[in-house]
Design brief:
The chain is an alpha+beta fold. Helices cover about 20% and strands about 35% of the residues. The termini are far apart. The structure holds manganese (II) ion.
């Protein structure tokens, strides 16, 4: 007669490895016991590109579903939660675009100088990013050099959003675009990038003008 089976151990804590563990006796086999590794979420990238095209703006991009969702923020991000920054949604960009810093030649779409102003990773603070985007209310955290902590993008109407910092220890009334005007990858100014990238005299003048406006606002 078979020995009555003892109560089966609770393997729920092993999640998807419960069956693997149930089938093995680890005092006998030398196979490893199945332990759940910490969930390794692939880190999602974000980038902010300072772009002196027909006018200066900051392209704010969040990786989602294999592309970079993109918004053009004319005044740039603000660390002051009372500043709601207008953000016009633009076309999705390839993830490789995050590496781009240089000059878009005259006559081309977006012609002008592009700087990688900040970059890092981001984390949604919602379960379903697609749903949050459809609802027009996306809460997230940024882990950048200049931008950190909780933020929200709120849609007002078709393609028109507001980018707002949420209150935390990174919140400040200090103007980050003025305090930190340079590239996070090359430390260059817009003019430095323009010069190195073969900008036209007009593009170089625009880049210098944008650098100077940051410096003025810094005072
Ligand atoms: Mn742009």
């Amino acid at each position: 007669m078979r020995r009555p089976r003892s109560k089966p151990p609770d393997l729920k804590r092993f999640g998807r490895l419960a069956e693997y563990n149930l089938k093995r006796r680890f005092d006998v086999t030398s196979e490893p016991a199945g332990k759940l590794a910490p969930v390794r979420k692939k880190r999602l990238e974000f980038v902010v590109q300072k772009h002196r095209a027909s006018r200066l703006h900051y392209d704010f991009r969040l990786e989602h579903d294999g592309v970079m969702l993109s918004w053009a923020v004319p005044k740039g991000p603000s660390l002051d939660p009372s500043n709601k920054r207008f953000a016009m949604q633009t076309e999705d960009h390839p993830i490789e675009y995050n590496q781009f810093e240089g000059v878009i030649p005259e006559g081309e779409y977006g012609a002008g100088t592009v700087m990688i102003w900040d970059r890092g990773t981001w984390e949604p603070e919602v379960e379903d990013v697609g749903l949050a985007l459809r609802k027009g209310d996306l809460k997230f955290r940024l882990y950048g050099k200049k931008l950190q902590g909780p933020w929200v993008l709120v849609r007002m109407r078709e393609r028109q959003w507001l980018l707002i910092k949420h209150r935390d220890k990174a919140a400040t009334t200090r103007d980050i675009t003025a305090a930190k005007p340079r590239s996070v990858v090359s430390r260059r100014t817009l003019a430095g990038i323009a010069r190195a990238g073969g900008a036209s005299p007009r593009q170089l003048a625009h880049a210098q003008e944008a650098d100077a406006s940051s410096a003025v606002r810094d005072r």
